[in-house]
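Question (not urgent): is this output format expected?
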Amino acid sequence: MTIFRAGRLFDGVTVRNSHDLVVEDGVVASVRPREYSGSEKIIDLSENALIAPGLIDLQANGAAGLLLNEAPELATIDAMCRAHMAVGTTALLPTLITSDRETTRKAVAAAIEAARKSIPGFAGLHLEGPHLDPKRKGAHDPALIRPMQADDLELLLGAVRQLPTLLVTLAPEAATGQQIRALRQGGAVIALGHTNTGIEAAKTAFAAGASTVTHLFNAMSQIGNREPGLVGAALQQDPVFAGVIADGVHVHPANIALAAKCMTGNAGGVVLVSDAMACFGTTTTTFSLNGRNVTRKDGVLRLADGTLAGADLDLPTAIRNYANMSGLGLTASLTAATANPARAIDRFPGLGSLEFGQSASFVSLDPNLNVTGVWFNGKPVTRH
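Got this back:
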């Protein structure tokens, strides 16, 4: 039994002062008021430190020089999980954006193998496309975007039975309500994104089983005076979870504050995502995405035509940015990277909490919300 001691502890719901995290055999034995005992091993992380559940990233396209789109293999998933875990993300959904059928099948097969091999940090697969609206393609290749067909649905339903989580981003224009309902009933988590949908079609998709929105404000219909679009639907629909890229580039801070205010108190809420690309954890300045060059400059990733292509971001930075932009403070900012993403994929409290009996995967942070230590299943993780 080991006691981890810090000045504060966030258990996934509440920030507690002078509480210890007690770990035994890789799981949480208890969170209890501080006790001074000489009979147990104590790891003192300092009074300035804060212990929190391991971070959860539902949207990361790459890391360590690799992209799932370019190399849909087990080795890519393993390298991504390792790189993201080194900065505090102990649960990751490697993300494949719009691709051809063969690449999608390879990515699904690699993800199933990752689940079978229990790759540390692998929490499931996110398929962002190809069933989107080309009018809101973003950095996705419009030539590969297409409506969902029977064989696509069959592939997804087969995958969800073999994965811990399957998150599917789609547009209501490219998938029927019946298909959305079948996916949700089959166990998939459905997100709306890359869509020009109106509010009524969005509400219909939510009623069919969609529960999440992918990178709110980006690549979707915006709030208009007579048509609120997907943004308007997401901000007033409860419960809905909304992914947000809090890098100060993708979304204006005022819009992040608006989303935070609208969704506070809801059963859903804001979910911070990195939308990380191949350059994550490296110093590289260029890489390829579906045959197109992406340039990294001043913390921004763009295609040659200036289109944003993912984000140069990690979750600890997103937490710090969100704390400043949202105005909601520490608890809400930590929740947006721990409990909320876990709830969004139906995995709370197994992920995103420090409840009794759950995996002792957690981070320590300094007063500026910089990650100073990472533990996975009770064991320390080597950091960069």
